[in-house]
Amino acid sequence: MGGHQPVERWDQASDADGGRRSVAALVESLQPLDQTRAELLCRAAHDLRTPLTAISGFVELLADGEAGPVTDTQREILRTVTRSADRMMRLVDALEPPTQDGR
To answer: Is residue 38 situated within a structural domain?
Structure first.
């Protein structure tokens, strides 16, 4: 008669334990990549924040009339630049991952 091949027995506990080990190994292997990502985002945020701070400061000087009289049209343009710089700063701030204390 034709022989039956043995049926492998599925051990659910062993399979689940192997799955947990696989997930843990995957998480561990991704940690350096996550650290590199966080460092890159911090660097990009810093590199963008520096010129934005200068732009905001000079616009404020202009708006205060430190470089001479400002017309109403110029003042409106400076307000638009200020709003845009503030928006960009919020986007830059969002690039940085939260610190250990949640900020």
So the answer is: yes
- Give pLDDT tens digits for 50-74: 999 999 999 999 999 999 999 999 9
Domain boundaries, position 73: 15-95
Gyration radius (Cα) of the chain, Å: 29
Judge whether 69 lies within some domain: yes
**CB contact at 8 A, 89 and 49:** yes
Structural domains of the chain, count: 1
Of all helices (H) and strands (E), which one includes residue 84?
helix 72-95
Q: How many CB atoms lie within 10 A of CB 85?
A: 19
> Is 2 part of any domain?
no
Predicted TM-score (pTM) of the model is 0.63
With a CB cutoff of 8 Å and minimum separation 6, the contacts of 62 are 70, 74, 78
